[in-house]
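Support case: user asked for a sample of complex input and structure output to validate their parser. Sending the pair below.
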Amino acid sequence: MNPRYLPLTATVAIFLIAYAVCIAQYPNMLSTRVIGNLLTDNAFLGIAAVGMTFVILSGGIDLSIGAVIAFTGVFLAVLLQSTAIHPLAAFALALIITTAFGAMMGAIIHHLEMPPFIVTLAGMFLARGMAFVLSIDSIPIKHPFYTSLKSFYYVLPGGGRLTLIGGLMLVVFLVGILIAHRTRFGADVYALGGGTATARLMGVPIGRTTVMIYALSGFLAGLSGIVFSLYTSAGYSLATVGVELDAIAAVVIGGTLLTGGSGFVAGTLIGILIQGLIQTYITFDGSLSSWWTKILIGLLLFAFILLQKALILLSDRRRRHA
Amino acid sequence: MQSVSSYVLSATGIDKIFPGARALNGVDFSLARGEVHALLGENGAGKSTLIKCLTGAYRRDGGRILLDGTEVDPHNTLEAQKLGIGTVYQEVNLLANLTVAENLFLGRQPRRFGLVDARAMNKQARALLSQYDLDIDVTAELSSFSVAVQQVIAIARAVDLSGKVLILDEPTASLDTHEVAMLFRIVRRLKDRGLGIIFITHFLEQVYDISDRITVLRNGQLVGTRDTAALPRRELIAMMLGRELVHEVSEAKQSEAKAPGAARFRFRGFGRKGHIQPFDLDVASGEVVGIAGLLGSGRTETAEILFGAERADSGTAEVDGRPLDLSSPRAAIREKFGFCPEDRKVDGIVGDLSVRENIVLALQARRGWARPISRSEQDRLADHYIKALDIRTSDREKPIRLLSGGNQQKAILARWLATNPEFLILDEPTRGIDVGAHAEIIRLIETLCEKGMSLIVISSELEELVAYSSRVLVLRDRAHVAELTGEEVTTNAIVEAIASAHEGRPS
């Protein structure tokens, strides 16, 4: 088997085994209700993680997305509370702002040759700070449009509900897969992850691609913020702290190399589902502390980092013998 | 036929000025269709600067470039590629994490309904590579192929993208003889198709093998352009060096007739299991002992064990009758040992540090960080060695990665000389640097041994070994198999020792 598929295969195998273990213990977990809830509960994280996948594939990192999600939530809540603007217009406005925010970080990373870690860390503080400027309280959103959006769902056979936001996450993943594997932009992202200097010599428009990658991440963080505000019907500046780290964990567990250049958007979906599955299991068990989620995710991350290291060593050795 | 139209590329009066240095001074260069034109010169002669001006990687400060008779001014390599000038570099500049097909078509993938059509792309990639007699899985990652195959893929991409001028910048540096032959077949075929090919290398045999004309640069100036057939090798070397290297080396050999003194460093049964078999070695002060052997014969392993980079598990080492502690490089440095490793990019230089910092590194390490060398002392040391070894840098504070290979090598040598070693090991001191710098390094080695230093030099350049060594150890299969002394030290004798050891092996 081509070793590039190995991490993805491992992820899928872990998910299936974990799911089988869950079902063996709690047969109820094999229902469309559980699956529907899994998608709904992790929709905002999944959407943000798609953006993170592109960033990590290009060899970068985006630490700002948790703060951007919170900012978007507060922005929407304040806007809908204090003006008569239609939520759809507010959505568009929020997406424009977050996309521009991402693009700006990308431009700084490229033009000032700054490490993405520092630039997006600054972006994180900036976005979080902006959220506090708008409001320090949790503001409920009671717009009728929100209520109608939330009541909109597709009933799966077995009684599960595929909600609007759960479905939106799946659509975002599908589009993400198409962009990553079937567009020139996607190939450029992988090229950047393979080596910036070489990519430049091969004619990849480094600047444009970098800006687009972080703009995409910003856009998806904004979309994730909209989804989160639909999910919670509120905006709170202290929400979604550390979500960027959950997203990074999902990407890595999904089999993407942290150093960039190798991985799949589809893997990230499985990474999200594994995290959600652990959470669901703990809910079903009822007696376990929710901290077990973090512990298991931590162990999984370690396992995947070791797997990646082994793969790198393996491919190095193959190259030497080639 | 008009003379203008017979040249696919002609550059006149190219100037390039860097802060503090004039890298190119009114250089003319022309390239005919269906010609292989070798571009030669010492390190820092301006070869790569000229190439970078042609490909738009640098903006030139003066001169004109005509491509097919029209003036061009590429702002970057991408633009040059679109104009028809493609480049293939020594280190394959493709992306190891992408598939072969993706590498070939990056940025111009065939599309259907706005999406990349992977099937069409793979089909086109196979068709393209079949022109180069390459039948490989184009959907496999590039990293799964050998450097030679990657090099051919890089050429296929460059030719497909540009199609008028192909620049090959040391493409054969990491290929073996068989692979070079394969590459040359492809180059000849492209030449027959009417491409103009610029070929840069330091292998003079290859220049005579493949090129039609030779242009020599020296210190940013054009020395001359000649037909290869009408240029004897000796004259070519003279053009490149502005002096007769061959003569100097052979003369040096004659002065080497002095008898080696009493052994100062004695190694008895020194070895390490699985690394190098136990060997005996005596080195007198002021003596150069050469180590010869094929790749993988244990040359570098010998150096590592002498320097304590790998710990010996048998045998003894002593100097002047006193036992030596060679348990680690730190211990070896304390015993006044020095080691210039083979791969200077990986094991030698610290690229982002300045020339000065690189030079004082080993001395500082030996003194310990608690006793820093004062800045004025550092400056003095750096200036001294920059002058003594003729390290060509505009300034001692320049990051060392900006220096050419030969000058980096000299800086590493300076690093060890600054520690006043009594026993210095040089592993391939002339690898990857060109002929002129070779002669300078050889001269340096001779000066050092006149000062009473004991030297171990590992080299695959037999002529060089013969020139400066009073004795040569021959290695084979991780064991010392022969030792040649005095009159016996000739290229033929070394080759014979390697070959006979080979035959003498059972099975």
